[in-house]
Specification:
The protein is an alpha+beta fold and 245 residues long. The protein has helices at 11-18, 22-30, 71-80, 121-131, 142-145, 182-196, 204-210, 218-221; strands at 8-10, 37-51, 54-68, 82-85, 87-89, 98-101, 110-113, 118-120, 153-157, 160-165, 170-173, 176-179, 202-203, 232-234, 239-242. The chain has a four-stranded antiparallel beta sheet, with no helix packed on it.
């Protein structure tokens, strides 16, 4: 069966396909030869242009999706293994090249781990063309790699696959990917821990309070996730649990 074309790849997969070392990939990223991205959960951002220590804002809006990671930030990220970032490069924006998490309303920075870095397919192909790199056998789809990745935590119950990374910000249940915001990720983490302890059902209002949500209804918290009920199950009486529980 032909696998769907991937929009992005993790660095580990890039290294395997190109048969090069991790140090060589890091060098390419740090020197802006290979562009990398990371998933930014929904938040209020500012588009504009960074000049020195000044950021000139042009547009403010809510955004969720891939953003580029600056080479200078990648250097520190590779040294430490993780880094808290607020400034990024806009992906696919025709007018503005820089993007940052807005200061108002106050929002936390994005904690980025080295394993969270992604390479867009068009950037991968451009690098291969520029440096005449061939690829070895194609790898399985991105989500299929997670179950074999030692960096990702995972759980199987009754044959159901549940894997997560980046503090539950990225979750895969069966073959469905969920990129979650901070509160959403805390809800999933709480439900997952409850399932591990043998008491999977949690009262919704308690669950939302513990996650730091100001919303009183689960559907309001997950309104940016139209398929959230594929991940969370309700008993119809105000209690919730993971479907993987």
């Amino acid at each position: 069966m032909a696998l769907p074309k991937q929009d992005y790849f993790r660095l580990e997969i890039i290294e395997k396909q190109w048969s090069i070392s991790h140090d060589e990939v890091m060098y390419a990223v740090e020197n802006n030869l290979l562009k990398v991205c990371v998933w930014l959960p929904i938040c209020f951002v500012e588009y504009g242009k960074e000049e020195g220590c000044q950021f000139h804002t042009a547009i403010c809006e809510h955004y969720e999706g891939l953003v580029g990671v600056r080479p200078k930030d990648c250097h520190m990220l590779f040294q430490r293994g993780e880094s808290s970032l607020t400034h990024f490069l806009a992906v696919g924006h025709k007018q503005h090249s820089d993007i940052r998490i807005a200061d108002e309303p106050q929002q936390p920075p994005l904690m980025v781990l080295e394993r969270d870095l992604l390479v867009m397919n068009n950037d991968k192909e451009a690098f291969e063309k520029e440096y005449q790199i061939g690829t070895v056998d194609q790898q399985p789809a991105y989500s299929d790699h997670l179950q074999h990745d030692p960096y990702y935590s995972r759980k199987r119950t009754n044959g159901r696959r549940f894997v997560y990374s980046n503090h539950y910000r990225h979750v895969v249940y069966e073959d469905e990917n969920f990129h979650l915001g901070t509160i959403q990720a805390k809800v999933i983490e709480r439900l997952h821990n409850a399932s591990q302890n043998g008491e999977p059902w949690i009262y919704g209002k308690v669950l939302l309070h513990d996650a730091g949500s100001q919303c009183n209804r689960m559907r309001d918290v997950f309104k940016s996730q139209p398929e959230w009920r594929n991940l969370i199950e309700s008993d119809g009486k105000g209690h919730y649990r993971l479907r993987a529980a």
